[in-house]
Amino acid sequence: MPVLQFTDKGIYCAAGDFYIDPWQPVQRAVVTHAHSDHARWGHRHYLCQQDSVPLLQLRLGADISVQGIPFGEAVYYNGVRISLHPAGHMVGSAQVRVQQGSEIWVVSGDYKVENDGLSGQFEPLPCQVFITECTFGLPIYNWQPQGIIFSSIREWIQENQRAGKHSILLAYSLGKAQRLLYNLADAVPRFYVHGAINAAHQVLLANGHPLPPVHYITPDTPKADLKDGLIIAPPSAAGTAWMRRFLPYALGVCSGWMQVRGHMRRRNADAGFALSDHADWPGLLQAVKATGAEQVYTTHGFSSAFARYLQENGIAAEEVRTAFGQEEEEV
């Protein structure tokens, strides 16, 4: 029997009797990170990296049964060794290394190989079998270094200030928003955020993460106070009454999908910044090669195309259907 199996509830380890990022309620869930397509409500017990604990409690309820462990520390379920290792996707994101006897499988969760300064550096893990995400598994997706992207964002903010416009960036409320705040801390004097972002931000601040302070936008926030600041909101706020109060404004979208210009037009954005918390095509290939895996399973995203490319280049690969997908608000 293989170490891990693909079932209708999620990725299952029969010997250890646990699931990894299950999408149906189970007794024991090992969770890679706190995004809703991977961390779902209803499991009896959760195991995650220790920085994910308060985020899971924020999203799933303070009364969940959850155990957090440091990166690299092992726990054993029925003799199966489990350890969590940096994925670099967001705060607390982890790859799951599962070892039964001499056989090692690694489940990547979501990951990126470039260190954003906040989420940790992706750690390649040698294994026989690697289960990898493929959100951006096409050659067209090739990110610029984040330093260049953040320089472009700074210039865009300055242009908007000269034009007398507020700057609004749309970014996923858990993960992407904090990456922006961390890397733009020197770009503007004040940050103003939507309530969805503020909730996660306050939890991370309370747990010691090095993030700048933010101002939570309420109906009573004077518009004049926003003049020199940067407004960050989730994509779900676009086109709502919440946004109209900031006119005149320039709208920027931060997402890997902005690599394709048509996506920016469809979002009615003034600017698109291809800033992603997922690996691009070269990053995916780099990660697969570094594992030395004899077998690769590809999940969510362009999984079929990526598996086919690996096969054509001498790596045994197979696409697997899962319930993982785009994080809410990223659609």
UniProtKB/TrEMBL annotation:
Any one GO MF annotation of this record: RNA endonuclease activity
InterPro entries xrefs: MBL (IPR050698), RibonucZ/Hydroxyglut_hydro (IPR036866), Xnuc_lig_assoc (IPR026360)
Protein name: Putative mRNA 3-end processing factor
